[in-house]
Amino acid sequence: MQKIKLHPSGREIDCQTGDTVLGALERAGYALPNNCRAGACGECKVKVLAGQFDQGMVLDMALSQDERRQGYGLMCMAKPLSPELIIEWGTEDAKPKLFPPREDQRFVLVDRITRTPGILELHLRPVGQVMRYWPGQYVTLGDERAGAPARCYSIANAPRPDGEIVLQITRVEDGRTSRWVHDSLALGDVVKLSGPYGTFIGDLSVDSPVLCLASGSGLAPILALTEAALRRGYRKPVTLMFSARTADDLYESGMMKYWETKHRNFSYKPSLTREHCDGMLHGRLPAVIDQVFKDLSQHSIFVAGNPDFVSASVAAVKALGAREEMIHTEGYFGQAQPETAPASHLMTT
User: Fold this and answer.
1) Would residue 336 count as lying in a domain?
2) What is the pTM for the complete model shown?
């Protein structure tokens, strides 16, 4: 058992042998930003002030050699080696607002719906205790025995009393897990979910207009966030812009119309990139946002989709005045398989 100390507060948490720093922090309820959980995105980068840790195999684009020399590490892969590891983490550390994740929670597949030619929606009911999570978080799903390694999927619905979780999974031809989901999972099958994970969550204290931008299955966490906000009676304008290639790739259109009818402050604006359709925008979202908004300086922005879409969208909203501290992003990275680093790659400070 090791200790992780948060500087400058001095707070300490326990880290079990073999556990990652991120895992230990989440079990203690701390909201360290993270995304890919595989050393690929750099969201969980912090500076290690004292102690030794095994960094594991991470991508140079997420943690450069210069950053390593300065003492930075990616906490999703870092495992403490010394009795105490001191990390630099803000002035408030991160308020203990996340629910501790649990591994291998059993769920039954009660429904599967084809949303688009490439996106399958799963409805999963818990066998035991209901999973507690914040809208915008994600879980891992897989079955090693079936050759489907655990992969990260955003929850597409706000929490419900019966604990049902909705996942929207895009088929990836070279993705073993997505092919297993699309081709093999049947109604009544029991699967195991671990989670919840992630910090792409809404701030309940925010009282500003909201703009949500999504592409592909990046719509999933946006749906959960929007549903939760409208359910609790959020009064400021909420706009959801969704990018798809063709009209066949648009999904949840019925729900969008329902929300627009029931909540006068909600508006849905899809955009198609490969065909024209009356009443819809045409083009990639980053290029058409300025057709809808001229000033985003007072908006809270939520963006979810592939990394290129997220980067371009962030640049576009900043050009319209969006403030850095009010922009929240969730980029979907390829899920690398963690490996143990050789001794020559171990990081010390």
Assistant:
1) no
2) 0.80
